[in-house]
Amino acid sequence: MSNSLPYSMKDVSYDNAKFRQRSLYKVINQTLLTQNVKRDWLSCSTGKFLALVMLFGLAYLFLTHTSSGPEVSGGLAKNVMVNEGDKINGDGISGLRKFWRKPPRLPPRLSPDEKGGKNSLSREAENPSSRLKWVSRQQKVKDAFIHAWSGYKKHAMGYDELMPLSQRGVDGLGGLGATVVDALDTAIIMGADEIVSEAGSWIETQLLDRIKHKGQVNLFETTIRVLGGLLSAYHLSGGDEGMKLTRNGPKPTVYLDTARDLADRLLSAFTASPTSVPYSDVILRDSSALPAPDGLSSTSEVSTLQLEFNYLSTVSGDPKYSLEAMKVLDHLKTLPKVEGLVPIYISPQSGQFSGENIRLGSRGDSYYEYLLKVWLHQGGSENSNVTYLYDMYIEAMKGVRNRLVHRSVPNGLVFVGELPYGSNGAFSPKMDHLVCFLPGTLALGATKGKTKERAMKDNLLTFDDLENLKLAEDLTHTCFQMYSVTSTGLAPEIAYFHTEEYSEEGLDGGNKTSKYLSDIIIKRADTHNLLRPETVESLFVLYRITEDPKYREWGWQIFEAFENYTKVDTGGYSALDDVTHIPPRRRDKMETFFLGETLKYLYLLFSDSDVIPLDKFVFNTEAHPLPIRSAVRSS
Ligand code: DMJ
Fold first, then answer.
1. According to its UniProt record, which protein family does this protein belong to (predicted)?
2. Which residues are CB-neighbours of 294 under 8 A, at least 6 positions away?
């Protein structure tokens, strides 16, 4: 097993591999089959004549069919000697080649079973006893959400976060009551009416005042959690011709007005910067802004604001929010990259990337997520003025496949590592749990929110889509195994993968029954779990798209592990210090994203697919669903 081959060349057993790298034999065979030529064609003289023509054709194809053509890209294309072929064949053949049109790549085929209607996977979801099981598991997730909220309400109402063991609150995000806003749309979606009323009324009576008087907040965190949460609540409670999922809480305009006031202050991060790259922090009370102490902003932070600011412009009718936020992406488009991959720091002073560290974990992650999602949110059309974002996304995912995807030994788990010293430096087999957002994004990007079955029936999947979908499935499996290898069944914050070049003894996850115990290395400093959502987020998206019930089962196992080891009797759930030991030490913190994301994604994983459908909503990086423009008008 090689660690240096591009992803697409390493795995030839993909479901649809036959449609990607067709041999000469297959090209001819498929052409014959398509034209319905019978087996006895050699028995008549016309057949013999045709055989001669075929022989000439074969010789011609042999000479000319060396180019993989422009539609075969990324890993495969890199390994085909396109230019060499041209040289050998000479000018005459090159001229002839102009008349040769390679047959289009055949679409992936469905099995006869799938063609008949519902596939066996989607039938499983409709089986009455299976439905009952998932309805009851979904209720368990709602109960967990109510338990988390009750701890927060009792001990920390109005603080950013709950410290469940100390039974008090803490303001780790600037003091805007971040848990209240992050949790609100989860409560709306779950139909937790009492919580909608409590959170809604706190926002109506307290939040504007906080926004006017509080000091320093981080632009990114405040945008994704508070602005995103308010905008989603606005839509889900009936604003913008929205869904009216609840009658509780204030009028939707309360959420919108609060969002506007907040965004007006956040805009200073853009306007104070000498370039289109915003500063990292804002002082709310006087609408001023300042860079981080080292002067640098995170790449993911400056590129993960646009869904929220665009939607605010749409619903407020004021383009200024979108204009400022989109300038960042317009600018990032012009900067040099390594096959679409970018360093994790950027300077607002110069507008240039800083350092060479490339990763899809912290500070890099949602740059790639928003390239896709901002495009999808604008309608996902081929001709929109943000199509360049989709192109950047596709290029970056090729870069991921070619440069960052490797396999572990001995069991071949597919993982995404890092290039801490840039494209010419050594590869690091380190993968943050944060990277587990990627499979969900890859699957979403492949089918654009449709089911895989639908996308295949409609012949919508390109070569890149197929590669990305397969990578999504493999990575989801790896992310699940990051949970499964530990004693608690919960993932560490960071995992390293055992490869031919890298191994460390005695740092396993502790679950001696796991087949992957020696594939995954967990360093002592990385054993904590912050109740993060990325894996269950991807399980949710993968389930919606593939309809494979294994993703639900994996999600249920993870939920049970949260229940077993992180639930605090007096209310709330706690982060853990060490997932490799039982009982695990606790960390006395319930992050806002446990209510905003983790429990929401688990709830939606167990719900019917028409609850917040993926072709009508885009989830911001904090799991706040915002309606897709074309979908709002047609729904
Ligand atoms: C969340 O705030 C967001 O998902 C962000 O993009 C990454 N980190 C956390 C959750 O882990």
1. Belongs to the glycosyl hydrolase 47 family.
2. none
